[in-house]
Specification:
This protein is mainly alpha-helical. Among the domains are: about 1-35, no CATH class; about 40-145, no CATH class. It has helices at about 10-20, 35-75, 80-105, 110-115, 115-145, 165-180, 185-204; strands at about 1-5, 30-35, 150-155, 155-160. It has a two-stranded parallel sheet. A two-stranded antiparallel sheet has the order 3-4. Helix 2 packs antiparallel against helix 3, helix 2 crosses helix 5 and helix 6 (about 165-180) runs antiparallel to helix 7. The longest helix is centred in the first third of the chain and has 39 residues, at about 35-75.
Length: about 200
């Protein structure tokens, strides 16, 4: 048997006092519900949505980079930099337009979707997939940025050639990880500091 009680601060104190003084049967639980529970559910949903959004942003940045490089290498009669810039802009356009279309289309129904258990489960599965894709891309970029050479060992697996390590990239990567994970510095300051440090190391 469950007893649900609407949230109230004074009532919460009385409930805690009652539970401390009374030995409840095994099949009886008292749970306080109301605004706090709704806030917790909303925060969990927004946290999942934020994680998905960050994954999508990362993928968009990767697509933009690929668009720039592809146009830069096949510039034709144009300047490579101008072709690369146009390629990056075109990639952003064809990526963001569908994104905003689905955002505006689904925004009126977001609360109803949150209440649907089946869709919440699907959202959790999508979150796991996005995390896996982001991790795979992060490892791929780490290998090709920190190490100048990698070799394939089959089954689509690549391992770095340790002698080809770029100490500048390794140092910047380690410093960025310490700044964000240990020192709790924000993403934008870390990116700005890494960019400046990269320019300094490049000039050395």
């Amino acid at each position: 048997m469950k007893l649900l009680i609407v949230e109230d601060e004074e009532l919460a104190v009385k409930i805690a006092d009652f539970k401390a003084k009374t030995k409840l049967p095994v099949d009886v639980t008292i749970r306080q519900t109301g605004q706090s529970e709704q806030e917790a559910e909303t925060q969990a949903f927004l946290g999942t949505a934020l994680l998905i959004a960050l994954g999508i942003i990362f993928l968009i940045l990767v697509l933009q980079f690929v668009g720039f490089v592809a146009a830069y290498r096949h510039a034709g009669t144009m300047s490579p930099f101008a072709a690369g810039s146009l390629g990056a802009l075109l990639t952003i356009w064809v990526t963001f337009v569908p994104c905003f279309f689905w955002i505006f289309l689904g925004a009126p129904y977001i609360e109803a979707l949150r209440e649907n258990k089946a869709l919440s489960a699907a959202l959790s599965a999508i979150t796991a997939a996005v995390v896996g894709v982001v991790m795979n891309l992060a490892l791929w970029f780490a290998l090709h940025v920190i190490f100048g050479k990698v070799q394939s060992i089959g089954l689509g697996t690549e391992v770095p050639v340790l002698s080809s390590i770029d100490w500048r990239a390794a140092l910047l990567s380690a410093a960025a990880m310490i700044a964000m994970l240990k020192l709790k510095i924000g993403m934008l300051p870390t990116l700005a500091g890494s960019a400046l440090a990269g320019l300094v190391l490049l000039a050395v």
